């Protein structure tokens, strides 16, 4: 118990990462190993897995069983939905969005990548890059995941051969230059044997880079946030109506981007009225500054009519106010495709609006990046560029500049299902 | 905070507060499930912080099995009085008396909580129910959404969940349907304890170690009380235990412990090697898929 003090201090930073790989590339084994080696696994979980593995007659305990979730998946031996896993090291707390790699599950990859700081893509060293590896990389770049790691797995099966690794690395880097991948790291590993997962491998002295875990612990994420453009979508108006707080009127929300301070001049969108920040309140007392991802309550010096769905910005740096939205849309519904002239509900920041599809400009083949301009609809897992006209203006930015104000979801009003995700371009 | 970094606990708190506010702003009739257990205590604390200085804008509800630790009920009532929140009690005993549910022969009431919960939700027309479940608790939970849709029968269909992207939660429902909302989704047991420590949140005494008369059932230590009587041939002995969870008093086992303060608990939890459910919940041991089945039926 030498680290009793560190275990109590909550100074860890949070890193969210999404994993992607084709079936059998070793994703479950890798996650199992990260959990196991970081001691995030408990004895009873381990015992259960050992028992199943022994019962099946496996030669070694199958780490992949640790992450096998639902019964239907166990029966089919596949993963059908995004699952979230947690582990921490003395450096960081990690949230893994474990997304299945089958072709029909682009939806899940997009979901997992939407909140990820980092994407981890796996390939099998024996097979090299496959169509799916390219698709995963494309989706992560589309969702603007700031950091990407390609793990070349099963190096033990290619004699830890540097040439095999180099070939895959070069091929992937060549492909990645066509995408916008801000930060790419390529690591040769064996998830099964543990090479370069937690510790640097002695089997690959030719590799000078960090182990995967070391990279996950050290990769610099603080500056990934947009601290420049003040965007504060108003979530809820707090008015206590009590004698003690009779005049209190505060705008509750989570800072989407930028840094806000008391005294700052702000503009309310869409009305365009301006005021100054009187104070930034929390239950623990007022703050001198607020920045993402803090949830705060902002009070203004002037009494303005501000409600949910409005946004606070700086007068000299405003979000776009527009009813004509150009977006890349990923369709997520199996029952009905997105249709030209279709009407949908949109949820964007804290605003709910309705929209009509004015144009489907093209459908994008995520493997070849070929554009099919004849398309008039988008089916499940298809991605395309569409033009929307909304009933009320969205207060938005390009997704590439601001993930929090550039993304939206599409809802089918007949059954309330989330049927698509959009990225404003 | 000069480099604009925050700890992961602060990030989790900000996320939970955002979720509470989102529900309050978009759902018609939310309710917070409150049992007096530590996760629901943290939930109530977060709800208070989310709306301060205004009061919590929704009631809390206890689905009461009638088999409670007395300290926990006292704690529940004290917290309710302090916060001024409205408490609704959905009584399992009452449902048994009315013949709405039948008590299982083994006397455990966890499973029959579900219809009682669903009945109360219908009666009060709740469209959003906050629960304190975490994804680290169990395999089926790992795939649960933060906003988890339930149909008219309160059922969960894991194959038909709404995709959840960014922080854009879809809480739309038709009348009769509900959203279960889990603001602690991304917390681990250790995060909950650290938060309790950091925020100095008081807890019922059962969470701290004390000498109790216990029986050993299949390696689990159950304190002898009005619900747990020694069976034929069972040895009663004295042991210092505390509870990691406090559910139904007939089902919840304690763990050997010397921890009498939050800091000592955190140290023990950080070093522990057995999951919370594995260590203390008799009901989940039954089968690998027990939780998944119960969730499909409408359990939290
Ligand atoms: N030799 C070797 N086998 C591996 C490695 N990683 C995974 N495997 C095996 O590859 C198979 C598929 O792995 P799994 O983790 O289930 O793949 P997933 O479908 O991507 O989750 C299993 O039999 C693993 O034991 C590795 O690094 N080396």
Automatic annotation (TrEMBL), chain A:
Superkingdom, natural source: Bacteria
InterPro entries: CysN_GTP-bd, CysN_II, CysN_NoDQ_III, G_TR_CS, GTP-eEF1A_C, P-loop_NTPase, SO4_adenylTrfase_lsu, T_Tr_GTP-bd_dom
SUPFAM superfamilies according to UniProt: EF-Tu/eEF-1alpha/eIF2-gamma C-terminal domain (SSF50465), P-loop containing nucleoside triphosphate hydrolases (SSF52540), Translation proteins (SSF50447)
Enzyme class: transferase
Molecular-function annotations in GO: sulfate adenylyltransferase (ATP) activity
Residue intervals of the Tr-type G domain: 12-225
PROSITE patterns noted in UniProt: G_TR_1 (PS00301), G_TR_2 (PS51722)
Alphabetical list of Pfam families matching this protein: GTP-eEF1A_C, GTP_EFTU
Keywords, comma-separated and alphabetical: ATP-binding, GTP-binding, Nucleotide-binding, Nucleotidyltransferase, Transferase
EC number: 2.7.7.4
The protein, known as: sulfate adenylyltransferase
The organism's taxonomic lineage, starting at the top: Bacteria, Bacillati, Actinomycetota, Actinomycetes, Glycomycetales
Gene name of the record: cysN
UniProtKB/TrEMBL annotation, chain B:
Disordered, as annotated region: 277-300
Entry EC number(s): 2.7.7.4
All copies of domain Phosphoadenosine phosphosulphate reductase, residue ranges: 30-253
Gene Ontology molecular function, alphabetical: sulfate adenylyltransferase (ATP) activity
Keyword Transport attributed: no
Top EC class for this record: transferase
Keywords from the UniProt entry: ATP-binding, Nucleotide-binding, Nucleotidyltransferase, Transferase
Pfam families: PAPS_reduct
Entry-linked Gene3D superfamilies: HUPs (3.40.50.620)
Family statement drawn from the similarity comment of this UniProt entry: Belongs to the PAPS reductase family. CysD subfamily.
Protein known as: Sulfate adenylyltransferase subunit 2
